[in-house]
Write a structure and sequence with these properties.
Blueprint lengths: L9 H8 L10 E3 L9 H6 L1 E6 L15 E6 L4 E5 L5 H19 E3 L9 H6 E2 L2 E2 L8 H14 L4 H8 L3 H8 L3 H13 L8
Parallel strand pairs: 1-5
Antiparallel strand pairs: 2-3, 3-4, 6-7
Amino acid sequence: MPILRLVGRFIFAARQNVAMTNHDRDPLRVSEPHPVTLSVETLLQQCDVRRSRHSGPGGQHRNKVETAIELTHRPTGIISFAAERRSQEQNRQVAISRLRLLLAVRVRSVGRAEFVPSSLWMSRCRNQKIGCSERHDDFPVMIAEALDAIDAKEFDVRTAAAALGCSTSQLVRFIAQVPEALESVNKERTARGMFRLMP
């Protein structure tokens, strides 16, 4: 199974294997750059890594080696966990992918009221259509940028879409690929007396 197919299981992973210090509070806010834009090597330097034994696949080899990986991102307190693969390295890759997606959804960059799309965004948004598969390494960065734009525009998705150069429906469908992202936007919109977005 490709490592980034985990996106489809994001909510299950978030509920079962991932914790965050302020999950029920406002999003964490950081100065630019957003941590999801960092290289994997730099991101890992900001993490504590814990290896452990964990129930999961492996038959007679189960629990005999420490293959489970837990990553704690020190600046935010966000934790990702992976234990479903036999290989420690495969679990490490899954944990990194989960961490990047969690950071994308739960951390907002500040100071971008006049939002200008990045070169990455412009290269993947043509003719008002967003072209980035959830399996691509750029996906968490694109999700973070979309959510930053929506946040900067006070959750007016139409205005955010205009700033990003895409249609409103494209933007809503894009963030809806990660249910927690859509839910976080809808929570803020409801608090402001705005209607909930439907994918």
